[in-house]
Structure formats: structure tokens, C-alpha cells
Amino acid sequence: MTVLPDPGASRAVLVGTSRYQHLEQLPAVSNNLQALAAHLTGPLSLRLPPRHVTVLENPAAAHTVVSEVRRAAAEATDTLIVYFAGHGLIDPQDTLSLALPHTESGRVETGLPYDWLRQVLLTDSRAERHVVILDCCYSGLALGRMNAASPGLADQASVEGSFLLAAAAETRTALAPVGDTYTAFTGALLDTLSRGVPGGPTLLDLGTIYRHLRRTLGPRGHPVPQARGRNNGAEVALGPNHAVLPDHTAAPDRPARPGRTVRAGGKGAGRRHTLIGTACATALALLAGGYFIWDQQASQDSKPPAYGIEDSSILGRVKNYKGNKITIGVKKDQPGLSELVDPDRKVFKGFEIDLIEYLLGEIGFRGDIVFEPLFSGERETALKSNDVDLVIASYSATPKREKEVNFSVPYYKTGQSLLMRKSHTREGEVQTWDEKAVSRDVALVDMKINRVEDLPDGTDSCTVDSTSSEFMEENPKYKEKFDVQKKEASYKDCIEGLLDEGAVGSYEVISTDDVILAGLAYKYGENKLVRPIRPFKTEEYAVGMKKGDPALEYLLCRAIKKSITGKSWEKYYNTHLKKIMLGKPANPPDEPSCEKRPSSPAVG
User: Fold this and answer.
1) How far apart are CA 531 and CA 223, in angstroms?
2) Which stretch of DSSP H or E encloses residue 174?
3) What is the DSSP track for 81-138?
4) Sign of CA dihedral 14, 19, 22, 25
5) Residue 44: which residues within 8 A CB-CB, separation 6 or more?
6) 178 burial level (CB within 10 Å; 0-12, 13-18, 19+)
């Protein structure tokens, strides 16, 4: 029966050597350790608490590694994972030795005998299960020599109640293509963990992983992985099988490798390869727990941060959602997008309301969602002061705002336009208001208003404190047209001033995003109002969030992408916006790429 380790009762020790005094350098190992640690702690993987994962990079001595493994073995009561990446050597006793920074070829005392780690797991461990992954040359030696002289040695050498996965057979070097970010073995391993195994079980157990790796690597001419399991060790799962789960739980697509590995003499044979005779090391794919932890083009000398679920103010509530709530900042006066329809019960409806409920469901939240109405000028303040967790309120990402908060990828694209009374644009119609109003309307009636430049200078306009008002104020060309511009707290105030045609302080136009204007015209008087011009400035709405939550950024990107490709976006558009957009068909934003590095956490 497949077993998924209990995160609270499991431990992992990740060991790797990237810098050597006497052997070839393996800088990719540093990335490898960071990525694997993030994978084990990630929200779409084993979800180990970060404090339960120990990373030892370039340990100074063998006893340092043994001591940390012994400590973890004493603490773990469920599953213990031990990982090594670096050079592998064969010692004079024909057994595997793991190379540390000061290791020299032919000097057995300078390495770490694998048998030392095996003895710790056999004698000092309280864990019910052990997982050992060795990414080094000759790593199959950990299983013991398979020959007639010692038929039982392989079984004796393996760890009781465990599963040991080795990158290569006991006589094989591991393939490390020059220029690739990771070796053939680890690349295939991460493909399996992130993409899953089609047709496989719901939980991705080690037996399934091993068989899939053999089927994947063998036909390519790569070293074939070796494995040995005892006492149902093959049934230990390393996470869900993303190939058979809904898309929202799937890990992201793997980035393309910088180069390809081919057989000598085959297509692309001019590519240089290295068979590192005493080494097998790699950087794991730059994916961690279902989200990116750093850019694949980053320097191998850099150390990307690893993010776990505990680092997210919102994702930390996903697993234990009972009694939790998420507060979402929204607009209350934008028909079609977001509108307060029942003030007593605080009920909202609209495209953005349906979309945010969908996105939260896709990242796994099942708690209570509370909507908090905000004015445009309050959005950054509400996020920074923790009054709301997220904002979805016709919120455009701008350089000025990005200094204070972070944004998801865009979920809606629109553009700034104008809303006017039909009397201003209906040819030949003149109203009998006071002299100023009549002369003004005559001037507008005689013009064809197809663009902002067609408006007479000094047009009385209304907007709110938003990117629309900033654009008008900062652009001299438009500032002349709208030198009488007033900012209201809400668009409803602007509408009242626009419809109150003859009153002192009334407005001739409202300027903001086209989709907002469409909703206002639909609700407050389609027979009286018109949007006379095409949008003249592009706007893209995104979900606003506090800084320092890259895991949430990534998962929201995946959810927004799925809403677009899976037709949920179109459904919400047709339900709430199509009628107010006068039947205009759905036009979602471009399908986002979620393979970019998310924003870094705020510093200081």
C-alpha cells in the first residue's frame, strides 16, 4: 500500500559538494541542493517543514555528515530521506566513497564511505522508512556488487526498510553534458516529479518513479538507474502524481534544457559531452514544490532562496483552512466587474468576484472569503497594513505601485476611454439649458468626437484617484483638454455629476477604463450615455498582494492561466460583462507564462 510520509514526523538531509581542492569543480550542485530542499518543502510536494530539511553544502569533514544524518535519524519516526550529489569514487575495498571538498583520488581516508551512512540508518534510526538517493558515478556500488562470488551481498548492503535509488550502475560513470544545468539522471527525476507518470497511481511511489526513469533514460543511451527496495520501501511516495491530478495541482512545465544530449555520431554529434569518471552531479530542475524558485538563466555561482509554504501569509492557511478566512479588497460600484448588491449581507457580484473565488479554489483554499470594499486610493494602504490579503479591484500594475506591492500576471485587458452624454454626440440635437450649457453643447454637437484630441480645451471631466487621472495629469497633451478635472471618491459620484446636466459643477465627460465605463452606462442610463471613442491607453488588471510571497505569485499565475485555457474566464465574461459590452465577444489577455522568476521578497 502506497504511503505518503507524514511531514511532521519525517526528516531529510541533503548533502552536496560543489567545490573541490583536488577534483573537478561541480558548481551546479549548489543549485541542486537549494532546488531539492524547496521541492521537499513545497506546497505541491511532501510539504516538509523547512526546519526538518538539513542542507549540507561542502561539508568540511565526513563526521559532520554522519553526525547530521544520525541526528535526523533519531528525530524521524516516519520517513528519513538522505541525498548526496557530487563526485563518487571507488575505494580499495571496491566500495563506494562519496567525495568531500578535500577528497583526493587514491586517498581513501579523505572521502566519506557510503557504508558509514548505511550503518547509521541500520543501527541509529527510529524512522519506519528510509529513502536514499545518490547522484554520483558508480553509485550502484551502494547496492553491492552483483556477481556470482557474492550472490547475497546486494541484499545485505541495502538498508533495511528502505528504497535506494542510484544514478548509475556500479561500473558506470554518470553522464554530465557540458552546458546543461543538470545531469541526465536528475533531469529525468525532476521531470517525473513535476510532470508525473501518465497512467500511474495517484501518489507517485518510488517503485513507479524508478520504472519510469529506466524507461526514460535507457532508450536515450544514458546510464540506466539502479534501485533496491526492502520491506515495502518501493511504496513510499514522494508526492502526488501530477499527470493524473487536476491541472491546478500540477507542477509547472519544465524549462527547456540549454542543450541536448545525443549519442556520438548521431544527430548533433558535434556537441561536447563529459563523462566525469569520478563524478555525477547536477542542479535539479529549477522547480520547487510546484512553483519556480529562481530563473534558470541565473549564474551557477548564485544561491537562490528556497521558499516553502510557511513563507506565504496566505498559502500557510491552505492546508489548515478550518476557521481561516481570506479578506479580499474589491470595488463596490463597478457594475459587471464588482458591485455591492446587498449591503446588509455584504454580498458582491461580478466578473472579478467570480474570478477570485475560482483562483482561490485553484490554489487550494477552502476557508471563508470576506470581501472588503475599497476606494481606488486605498488599495496599496490596505495591503500594506494587512487590512486585506489580496486586492482584485480593476487594479493595474504600474512602476509606482510595484514599489509598494506586488502583482499577479494580468487577468483582464482594457483601455482608457471617455463616457459622455448622448446629447453631446447626437448630430443636430440642441438642448434648451442655460446659455453656457447650450453654447457648450452646440460646440460638442458640431464636432465628431473620435479621439481625445477632438474635444475642446477645458472639457470638464471627472475621474477617481487612479492610473486614468495620473495619465491625464502627466501628459501635457491631455492636460490641456481636461484642465478642469475633478477626482471623486467613487465612480457613482462622477455619474451623478455627468447626468445632472445643467447643474453647477456638473461634468461633460468621465475618463477611465472602457470596461468600467460600459458598466456605468449600462446601469445608469444606456439611453443617455455613450462611449464615443476607442480606448486610447492600454490597461491590464492584476491581483494585488503584499511583497515577499513568490509561491503565491506563481500559483496565482497557474490559476489565471488555467482560467483562460479552461474557459472559466470566458464563462465569467459572458455572465457579467458581455451584455454591458454590447455583445462584444470574450477577449482574454494573452496566456501568461509562469516560468519567470517571481518577485523577490522585500528586504529590510
Assistant:
1) 66
2) strand 174-177
3) EEEEEEEEEE-TTS-EEE--TT--TT-GGGSEEHHHHHHHHHHT---SEEEEEEESTT
4) positive
5) 239, 240, 242, 249, 250, 251, 289, 290, 291
6) exposed
User: Cell for 478?
Assistant: 491631455
Closest CA to 464 of 499, 419, 528: 419
Q: Rounded CA gap, 374 and 330, in Å?
A: 6
What value does the CA radius of gyration of the chain take, rounded to a whole number of Å? 31
Show the cell assigned to 55: 542542507
Query: Residue 316's pLDDT band (boundaries 50, 70, 90)?
Result: low
Burial of 19 (C-beta count, 10 Å sphere; 0-12/13-18/19+): middle
- Residue 520: alpha-carbon gap to chain centroid: 35
Inter-residue contact 158 to 164 (CB < 8 Å): yes
Give me the amino acid identity at 383.
L
DSSP-derived letter for residue 255 is P
pLDDT reading at 427 higher than 80 = no
Cα distance between residue 291 and residue 168, in whole Å: 29
Alpha-carbon gap, residue 363 to 545, rounded angstroms: 15
What are the cell numbers at 145?
556488487
CA distance 547 to 522: 36
pLDDT-derived band at 444 (thresholds 50, 70, 90) equals very low
> Count of alpha carbons within 13 Å of 596, Cβ hemisphere only?
9
How far is Cα 75 from Cα 127, in angstroms, rounded to an integer? 8
| pTM greater than 0.85 (yes/no) | no
Q: Count Cβ atoms below 10 Å from residue 152 Cβ, excluding itself.
A: 8
CB 550 within 8 A of CB 315: no
127 pLDDT exceeds 70? yes
- Beta-strand (E) ranges in 543-585? 544-545
Give the separation between CA 380 and CA 598, rounded to whole angstroms: 19
- Cβ-proximal residues to 56 (8 Å cutoff; 6+ apart), any chain: 13, 14, 15, 16, 64, 65, 68
Strand partners, 142: none
Phi-psi region of 338 (alpha: psi -120 to 50; beta: other; left: phi over 0): beta
Q: Where are the beta strands (DSSP E) in 302-359?
A: 325-330, 333-334, 338-342, 347-349
